[in-house]
Give the backbone structure.
Amino acid sequence: MNAETLQWASVDDSWKLINLAVQSGVSRLFLSGSPGVGKSHFGAYGFGNRPYYQITLSEDLSVQEMFGHFVPKGQVFEWHDGPCTRAAREGAVLVINEIQRASDAVKDALLGLLDDPSVAMISLPNGENMRPKAGFTVVATSNDPLSSLDPALQDRFEVAVALTAPNPGLVSKLNEALEGLGYAVANSFKDEGREIPPRRAFAFAKLVGQGVDNKQAAVMAFGDRAPDVLNALIAGGVRV
Amino acid sequence: MKLRIRKMKSRGSAVTGPLPSVAAGIGPFQVNEGSLPPGIGGMVGTTVDKKRVYHTPRDNSPASIAIRAHEYGHLATNRLGLPEDLGAKFREAGVIDGWNQTIQDMLANAYMMRNGSDSIQNLPLESDFPVDAKRPEEWYGLASYYLRSRYLTACQSKRNEVFDALSLVSIDGVLTKPLEDAIRVVDLIVIYDEWKDYQQLIDLGVRLQTVYGPWPVVKPGLPGDKPGEGSGNKLRAPSHVPWGSMRIVQCDLKAQRALRRNMKSLRRAYVGAFKHPLQALAPAFDGKAFSLSRRVAGGTVLVDLSGSMDIESSQLVDLLAAAPGAVVAGYSSERKTLQSGVLGILAANGKSVNERPEQFGTGNVVDGPALDWLGRQPEPRIWVCDGVVTGVDDNLSPYLTSEAYRKVSAYHVTRVNNIAEAKALLKTKQNGKPGLKTGLRLISVLKKGGV
């Protein structure tokens, strides 16, 4: 989502769109953006005090781990809900990180979970037909854009927002860690592909806060980019 | 902004991810790497289709890091309030791009250094620069190099060389003073965040160009041009600025000056009438057994009363009181024109004015003729002036400056910057200390006599 599109919509920050979506009761969100912009953080804390479950997908993760399976208990096998089932049953927030890394089987299984709430139903192997409780919300995150998913899965999300800047809360925390650092990191996102990774920025602030020489801290945190990042931070008004 | 550097080869591969948006606070930037025009190390700017461009070498050699840091500095100064079209404003004031570039380079380096980026110190500058300060047409290159090389450790020795060369041809430091003034202006802008007050930079550019050139050649006016119009440039070639004509006026000297009390007072000394015999018993006493009349500061004091000196009436009266035996005169342009000037006697023969007379204008215009007048008056001669001299239309010129300082030297004039310095100097002269040579000679005589 480029700056012109946001400007056309009279929005200067893509995070405002997400907040609007949450306030409007949207229950299936797809967030994409660079590592560290605060996608997962938003999934966990962007819905106030609502309970949430978080799962990070990979090729090896199976459908059973996500939806549930039988586990032996004494002489019998008992059904054990996976995080997806549990979140749906409780009407909680389910944060699915790195959705693009999931296996095809998991992606297929997610189609049912992400169906419109009025028709969504999960038939579990224990014979239960479970309907998600009201309030069940799914936030899927990815470093890749929505178009990297197959069309059926794309279609399941009500809202897809490409995040072009770090979360304002993250910016504030970086500023607290080192004056001006949050703004500098936010500005770095204006140059796509050359962003200062927020996690590295936190590490840099931590090292400097511990009294490490700022050049040495920059090399540890940013590698070969250290001279550029440090000088750009200084020019950007960061009190290094 | 373009950074002029010596020819430099990129060492190593591109390993960096420049972050111009962080420095500029806006983005995106198109980051380019590769060949720039010869002599250009890096540049930031906007293309015709409004794309922001950041063009620098991308390897991590000290010089390349410094160039990138320098360009970040330029972006930072724009973020802080320096107009992006500052070059156009300089051109409107008749200042060449070279001075705009020099001043902005100074600001970028000063900002980065002040905020902790010592990478700037490795910034490469061109190694070829003029060294003959005796030729005024080379002053521009020397002065520009001196200012741009500030903070750059690799250039320190050349910087000293430039300063020495300019010092040699300057009189009373007047040729090097604008350099120090320029550094002070830039430092103050960086320290006090006065980025939006760019007018002082324009003024600085005008002054630097006036003193060091390059001076445009004033073409003869074409038929139909108004008087004074030639090439249309506001700055004149130095040889075209003459002194204004000067008239001498007698001001209304109403006040009686307190001369007698000071003239009668005596002071103990090593020479003079033998009035304090007890003091001769060295080492119990200091040997000042003689007595001399206190000297009253005589001679002549010439005061620059132009606007730049900002001398108020009360300050002038203080000065007159501090120089009871001296002839004091003031000068400036006429009140209503900058084509000529006026010199007024403010104090003489025991009488003085009791306030600043109204004849004086805001410009200098007649520093040269006024110094000629001073040269004909009794010594010691003191000139109260900030060192800035001008000719017709209050125009600066290095030739006028040189001429003025030749007069200072030839007429044995002591220049002081302001009233406070003048009063301090007059006080020293009034105390009339006998001087080291006299003292040593007397001590020698006393020893020979067995005292």
